[in-house]
Amino acid sequence: MQDTLALDRQVCFSLYRASNAMIRAYRPILDGLGLTYPQYLVMLVLWEEEGLSVKSLGERLHLDSGTLTPLLKRLEQKGLVTRGRSEQDERVRVLHLTDDGRLLKRGARDIPDRMRCMVGTGLEELAELKRLCDKAAKLLERES
């Protein structure tokens, strides 16, 4: 009989280990852009949809305001984003990229291909891995 509590049998540990390895692999690439991994995630969202509210950004990234606010302050200090007020509702903070923030996207364009090469798998396998991770996250988020 196999021990169900053995570390090597835990899916959670495999995901944890893979996540840590992925973030460590990003570090030298992102250092060249002057970004941390969480800052990169923020920039990915803003490159996709500028003028987003801080609340909407937090929902997209699954981050609370206590985590997001210092990230945004650092990006603002680096001159990559600005935080302003919504024209429709003064209480809502909206985010805009600066010219430097938009330019940074050019330097980031090859990152997904570089990471895919580091992982050493094909696009179909990566798409399946992403699908399974997204499915697990969705199911687990419903439970919490």
Automatic annotation (TrEMBL):
Keywords: Cytoplasm, DNA-binding, Transcription, Transcription regulation. The lineage of its organism: Bacteria, Pseudomonadati, Pseudomonadota, Gammaproteobacteria, Alteromonadales. It holds the Pfam family Staph_reg_Sar_Rot. It comes from the Bacteria. It comes from Shewanella amazonensis (strain ATCC BAA-1098 / SB2B). GO terms for cellular component: cytoplasm. Residues 8-141 form the HTH marR-type domain. It is found in: Cytoplasm. InterPro entries: HTH_MarR-typ, MarR/SlyA-like, Transc_reg_Sar_Rot_HTH, WH-like_DNA-bd_sf, WH_DNA-bd_sf. SMART domains: HTH_MARR. The keyword Transport does not apply. GO terms for biological process: response to stress. This is Transcriptional regulator, MarR family. Its main location: cytoplasm. The keyword Transcription regulation applies. PROSITE patterns: HTH_MARR_2. One of its GO terms (molecular function) is DNA binding.
